Structure formats: structure tokens, C-alpha cells
Amino acid sequence: MFEASYQIAHITDHFVLIVDLDEGRSVTTDAERVVADLYSAIEGGLRSRRIYYRDTEGRFDELRHQGGRFLGYAPCTNSQQDFLASLLDNSSPKAPTLS
């Protein structure tokens, strides 16, 4: 099966926000590879950055990780949902797509 395709929409010192592009596997089902991929792709690794993603249904959740290893999922609160959605509504030019 194909790997998940996603786009990095926002990066700060505290978190990375990605969007599932709904091509191939979902970010949810390919989470281990997605976390490892981000760890390698982001200069200096993820460090303590949280990874948030918008799934194919438009909901935001967190991919928990440590040292580039996927640990599990965490749901975002309603206020986190609103904040992350606002970042996508006001985003600057799109970052490259990764798959």
C-alpha cells in the first residue's frame, strides 16, 4: 500500500502542523513512518516539538513521539481545534508536500 502524503503547513519551535492530503495511506494509519520522516526532514530533528495533524475528515489530533519514534495519539481540545484551524486559514505560502 502507498505511504501517506501530507503537507507541512506550519513549523515553530514548539510544534509542527501537517495536513493529510488523502493520497495513499492516511497519516493516522501511517503514523510511525510519518513521525520518522518528519524527524529526518526537519533540520535538527523534532526535539520537543509536538506534531499536530489535520486528518481527512478535518479533525486535528496529535502524534505523540519521542526521539523520532511514534508513541501514540492524543486528541486535541476544542480550543486547540480552533487555534490549529485558524493557522491554516491564515497560512502563508504552502510548504512542500512530503510522501
Describe the structure.
- The structure is a single chain.
- The chain is an alpha+beta fold and 99 residues long.
- The chain has one domain (6-75).
- It is 23% helix and 33% strand.
- It is built from two helices and six strands.
- A six-stranded mixed β-sheet has the order 5-4-3-2-1-6.
- Strand 3 and strand 4 (60-66) form a beta hairpin.
- The longest helix is centred in the C-terminal third of the chain and has 12 residues, at 78-89.
- It is globular and about 30 Å long.
Q: Record the strand order, biggest sheet.
A: 5-4-3-2-1-6
Major sheet summary line: 6 strands, mixed
The N- to C-terminal Cα distance equals 13 Å
**Beta-strand segment tally:** 6
Helix/strand/pairing class, anyone?
alpha+beta
Compute the number of helices. 2
Helix content: 10-25%
Give me the Rg, rounded. 12 Å
- Taken in chain order, the helices and strands follow as EEHEEEHE
The shape, in one word, is: globular
What percent strand? 25-35%
pLDDT < 50 runs, ≥5 residues = none
